Amino acid sequence: MPVLEREMSEASFFVESPEAGRSNRAQLLHKLRHQRAALIGATILGVAILTAVLAPWIAPYDIHTQSGPVFGSPSWKHPMGLDDGGIDMLSLVMWGMRISLVVGFAATFVSMVIGGSVGLVSGYFGGKTDTILMRITDYFLVIPDVPLMIVVAAIWGPSLFHVIIVIGILLWTGTARVIRAQVLSVRERAYVKRTRALGAGHFRIVARHVLPQVAPLLVANTVLTVAVAVFDETALSFLGLSDPSRISLGKLIANAFERAAISAGAWWAIVWPGVLVAIIILACSLLGGAVEDALNPRLRVAHLSARTFRLRPLVGRGKEAL
Amino acid sequence: MSEALLQVEDLHVWFDLEDGGELHAVQGVNFSLEPGERLGLVGESGCGKTTTALAIMGLLPPSATVSGRVLLDGEDILAGGENAIRPHRWVDVAIVFQGAMNSLNPVQRIGDQIVEALELHGRAKGDVAKARTAELLESVGIPRGRASRYPHELSGGMRQRAAIAMALSCNPRVLIADEPTTALDVMVQAQILELLDALCRDFHLALVLVTHDLPVVAQLCNRCAVMYAGEIVERGPLETLYHHPGHPYTRMLFAASPDLGMGDEPVLSIPGAPPRLDRPIEGCPFRPRCDSAFAACGVRPSLLPVGSGHDAACHLNTAVPA
Amino acid sequence: MRGTDYVLKRVAFAIVTVFVAVTINFVLFRLAPGSAVSNLSRVPHATQQLRHALEQQFGLDKSKWQQYVIYLKQLAHGNLGVSYENEQPVSTNLRVALINTLPMVTLGTVFSIIFGVFTGVIAAWRRGTKTEGATVTTALAFYSMPTQWLGLMLIILFAGILPTGGMTNEFLLNPPFWTHVKDLASHIFLPALTLGLVLYGEYTLIVRSAMLETLGEDYVLTARAKGLKPRTIVRTHALRNALLPITTLIALSLGYIVAGAILVEIVFSWPGIGRAVYDAVLQRDYPMLQGAFLVLTISVVFFNLVADLLYFKLDPRISQ
């Protein structure tokens, strides 16, 4: 998601000392709480995660046994209809969310660890290390990730673990870039230089000063990466490269496609999984975008827009002074 | 009684703040300008002088609310909002900004930007416009060949000259200069000031010079208005303000500025900071920083005459000695 | 001269990236343990002759380095191997596929860019109004939809009105020119529309962001002060400047276009390079897969270079 990447690489903090940083986090949360996009995103994500976690208990039917007619249409007993095996769609969707979210978060974790480390090391140490690491990142950025994912997954073989690693390995570049930019700006802050001058070791500086400043941005980037990871997982499932024994929302779409759900007129076999994936990705985008917006004090005054300045009737205070 | 060319009456400007409040940036400003007269508008950053200047031409952003009157030849040009004020821009009142790098379009040639102004207001078209542009550039000291250059190819001084040439292209009667020399180095500053002096004289232009730099005002203007916390606290002839300031802020401002060529005073700085403008101000806004505050200062002073053509807003002028 | 400097640097970067991609390709297919190509027993229905030919071609009896060099030499000659499936040269298969893909992807991308710029400008212009909110939300919504799913939704929607598979109607034999054109058009519409809808959302956000940035610049204030009408300012001053970051960012999204193209072609059975990738995966046709990956990567690198050079042309600050 290049656009949000770019936005975040320009983000900088409005704080100059670590102490102020702590109260800034409170400020940030306060700001976010009032941002509608962040709230909607967080709520949806929360509900999704909850459903996924509780699926084994709240799914109405067993997903391995037929509980109705093949491609049965939505009814009171089966609000989302049934798939080509007569299995309840609602339950399938709930279980599907589990894998989709697991892959999403796990792949993001991998990408965060790699990308965060690369960005941190690159930004903090600078010089040759930085140049080399950034060159590598640049090459990876240009190479299209989905084809590479497809190739790697095809060669390696389909399994949940492989999918997670493959997606993670391709998403780290975005994080690395963003984190590096942030670390660079933090490194130049006066208080960091002072600490260095006082002889503090690198580890201490990173842990106590750099990380806290970088953390919120990392969080925003994480959420946005989850969105991409979930998207990539649906793409890989569609191509048959995901674990055949696991059901993800993407796999449900793929199954419906392969078993000609559309010709059978069973639109529900396709619509619900897709809507849910879209909602999850949308929630992540909203939340991540809102966080990085809140972190970014860049908001410049637009000189021009459809609205213009407003007029108010005379106040009258200064009249005596004329 | 002849009408002043430009008259600002009871001007207030509020800016919407993110948390829903308002910033009262300009709090009841009044002044008038005769043809050919030169008025300096001085004060610290954030005192509202630039906002006042922009408000005269209606160049406020959508987040602004205005009240008051701006009379040009007796007609209130602010009354109809953006659409009513637009016909007066550039042909009656023109403006030159600080730091001409960003105030000129970086992807358009200098000459084309001037031609745009000429053609827009029907002064010239096509080749005639190009010829006129060349003349204008020469009159500000730019060789005519430079018209085909982009802004980044010219030095800071040249860019400012080009901006001035562009401002004068449609023969306005009032020129507003907002910190015209602040971003330039000393030698170039002197040249630009000389240029402005000559041009205003030759074309009988009225000038409103907005700046925090007193020596600049001293060189160009005969009258001066001092702004603090959104209002004019003193105004009058420059010499009078220097020798007989009617407001402690004016006194301290002049004392803090060396090289005025008017005397040998030690340089002092004014401690403290201006008041917040997002809340109503109790009493005199300068009170916290004033060295002569006393009991009466709990009430906000009005701008009253203290001499011929000299007004000040300070209780010291009206206090009856005990 | 700064200008030629820039061009040379970007070209060099492109070349190196292609090299990196080629190497990755080699490593993945030859060196990875249990590597597909080197393990000839995995080749479906391989005859003795085919095996022998493959061994010769890939030099599997030689050292890894030598294999690498052979690989590079073959690439230089345009030899991408032979498809397992139809035993035709991979390069021939891909050339046909690429020719099929280009019109569809171009149409979809052009639509998405135009629509994205249009909605982005509107969103920036109507900042703080409901229109902005609605525009951005809609853009985000389409952006969040899995490409294949959106394609399937459109199929459901347009079933019976527009053809939903293939590039042409196979039952039309030797049709007259205009019939052929209409046939193509009716087939290309849905896949291109799907691609366009999935891509445009990102551009809306990019353009809106770039425009908001530009609209806060001083020269916009100057333009306003000159008495220019707002629409003129947006067009000639703001948009013109915003085009610079917009171009770069659109270029960065090329990888996304490739992904989208693959999924769209599968859903609509479009016989292009995306479908070729899918079929190659299904059939374990590794030479095809390897070749397709290379072609796709080189295309993306190429278009990135084009975008770099375009930016160079558009920004007088660099080209001087």
Q: How would you summarize this macromolecular structure in one to three sentences?
A:
Chain A contains 11 helices and 1 strand. Chain A has helices at 2-9, 18-33, 36-58, 89-125, 127-142, 145-156, 160-187, 190-197, 202-238, 249-258, 268-295; one strand at residues 310-311.
Question: What does this molecule look like?
Answer:
The complex is a heterotrimer of chains A (322), B (322) and C (320). With 322 residues, chain A is mainly alpha-helical. Chain A is built from 11 helices and 1 strand, in the order αααααααααααβ. In chain A, helix 4 runs parallel beside helix 7 and helix 10 packs antiparallel against helix 11. Chain A is globular. Chain B is of the alpha/beta class and 322 residues long. In chain B, 29% of the residues lie in helices and 23% in strands. In chain B, helix 5 crosses helix 6 and helix 6 runs parallel beside helix 7 (186-202). The mean pLDDT of chain B is 88. Chain C is an all-alpha fold and 320 residues long. Helices cover 76% and strands 0% of the residues of chain C. The longest helix of chain C has 39 residues, at 177-215. The mean pLDDT of chain C is 83. Chains A and C meet through helix 1, helix 5, helix 6, helix 9 and helix 10 of A and helix 1, helix 5, helix 6, helix 7 and helix 8 of C. Strand 1 of chain A pairs parallel with strand 4 (64-72) of chain B, so a sheet runs across the interface.
